[in-house]
Every structure is written in C-alpha cells, then in structure tokens.
Design goal:
Blueprint: E1 58-61, E2 69-71, H1 79-92, E3 95-98, E4 108-117, E5 120-133, E6 155-161, E7 175-189, H2 195-201, H3 207-241, E8 243-246, H4 248-268, H5 273-281, H6 285-313, H7 319-329, H8 334-341, H9 343-361, E9 364-366
Parallel strand pairs: 2-9
Antiparallel strand pairs: 1-8, 3-7, 4-5, 4-7, 6-7
Length: 367
Amino acid sequence: MKKILNVCMCGLIAAAIVTGCSKKPAVETTAAPESTEATESSAQETVPSVDLSKVDNGTITLGNYMGIEVKRDAVEVTDEEVQQAIDSDLAAHEKDVEVDRAIQSGDVVNIDFVGKKDGTAFDGGTAQGYDLTIGSNQFIPGFEEGLVGAKKGDKRSLDLTFPAEYNNKDLAGKPVVFEVTVNTIKEKQTPELNDAFVQENTKFKTVDEYKEDKKQTLIQNKNDEADQNVKGSIYEAVLANSKVEANQEAIDANVENVIARYTNQAASYGMDFSSFITAFTGMKEEDFRNTVKTQAEGIVKQRLVLNAIADKEGITVSDDDRKDVAQKMGYENVDSMVQAAGQYEVDDYIISNKVLDFLKENAKITE
C-alpha cells in the first residue's frame, strides 16, 4: 500500500496529497441496515490542480540558520508501554467464538428479524443471518438492549419507537415491532501470549524475542518523533530569524489544490465535497476550508525558507533521491509516484527533507 506523500516535511505542515490509500468514510447504520453501495460516476469531471512550479511564492530575506540551539526530548520506553503495544497486537487477533450462554454486551449475535409497523413489514426492516455486535448502536435505541439475556434459539418481540429525527419520514417517531430470532452467539476471545502465538503470527520464535522487538520498535518510533520535533524547532527558529512575505497567489493556489484533491476523492466515492469532508475528517466544510487556508500560508512560507537555504547551500534533488523516496513510499517506480503526486510536489518533498536534515546536522542539539 502506498504511503501518503506530504507536500511538506511531516510534523510541520499537515497537507497530504490524497492517494489511493486514503481511508474510506465510515457509514453508520441506525436501523435495520439497507443495502447501500457507493456509485462511481464515470461522467464526473476531474477538478484540475494548479501547477505550483509556475507560481511565485513570495519574497524572503534569509536570517541565520546555522548552529541553531535546540533541545531534544529524552527517549524512554516503559514496561507499561510495551505491554500496551502487545495488548493492541493481541486485540487485533481476537476471534469470535461461539458460546452457549445468554447474550451479553459485546457479543456478536447472528439473528433473523422482521420489523413491522401497524402489523405490516416495512422496507429495510427485514434480514436473515445478520451479524450484530451488541453495544455497537447500529440499530435504533432499544433493539440491541432488548436482546441482552436471550439465548440461542430464543425468539423476542421488541416494541420500539423510531427516533423523531430518523431520516425515513414514514418511520420517524412511529412505534414498530421487531420479531427477532437468535441463531448464534459469539464472544470475542483474545489469544494468550505464548510461544505458539508468537510463532504463528510473527517472525519470532519466543515471547522474549517478540517483546524485545516491540520495545525496540517503540524506541525507534520515539526517536523518530524526537528527531521530527527537533527539525520542527529548528525550522521555527530559522523562520523567526528571517523576513518572509508569502504571496497571496501562492497561498490561494495551494488551497485550490487541496480542495481539488478532496473534491476528486469525494467524486470517486460518489459523494459531494461537503459530505465527504465531514466523513473523512470529521470537520464541517467551513472549518476544513479555514484550516486549509491557515496551512497553505505555512506551506508557502516553509517553501520560501527551505528553498532559499537549498539555493545557498547547493542542495538539489537527484534521480537517486527520487528512486529512494519512491521505494520508501511503496511505489513501483519513480514514474508512478510522479503520476500520482506530481513532479513539483515530489521534488518539493525531497528538498524540504534534505534541507531539514542539513539544518539538524548543523544545529547545536542538547538533551
């Protein structure tokens, strides 16, 4: 799976190029689930992006950037953190195991059900062999709670009322009856951490080897985070030492490109821009646009600062740099990366990281 290639150095500006690995918005079910399938419109026109290589970013008077003094966070990994990582791994390997007992919250139950209004089955209220996790709130209030305590083979009649704000006006606020049959009951069982689990699910042979690897991974992640924080602090210091005037045209162009990428991504899911933004980011469209505008100004300023240092120090992008990034990002080759992200964005990403590495190498770092 391809990683998301950031326009700027990770941790400074959060402006990602949306690629095929972006997560799909989650759809929530609040009543008997209806079969909904996203429809992609082949007639949807792709919103074009602005060629940033032809945009004037603004002006800069570069200040001091050598020997910047920064403090690096100490890196320490506790036994508790290692255990949390292990617990997360074990949880990812949970299995649903059928049990012979009454339904409890958290169980996965397989059910048949028929929903009736005024004695007549209504559309979308009937299903057979449906798997439902009790406590997931997939169904209207009272449905899942009404199954707690039932056993395999039990039949329950649930007298419920649809919420007044329910999206189906024919059902909103109306009383209904769900006739439910419990087919099976399964509970989630977490595997035991032992050598057998380790050998089956990892490249290691013993629990001790597995635990040590978890610890070293956490240490590496914390070191990476500490290094990114150092680079961020150095950049902020260089920015403060410099006089930077971002061109509004460049800011607007970066905003336009982010909006275009998300608009095209929304179209690929058969969604409008506003709905996609809420599903994808959890933000309202207006808040999202304001956030993008703020980030765009930061992107342009960072580009001015880092490119000025690159010009002064003779830092450039080579074919080997592009090949290295393509490999790390999971692309088949440089051409496929450039096609997905854009030549300017790829080279901008590489220059940003090379300059930040240069600044870190020439900084005075204390711990």
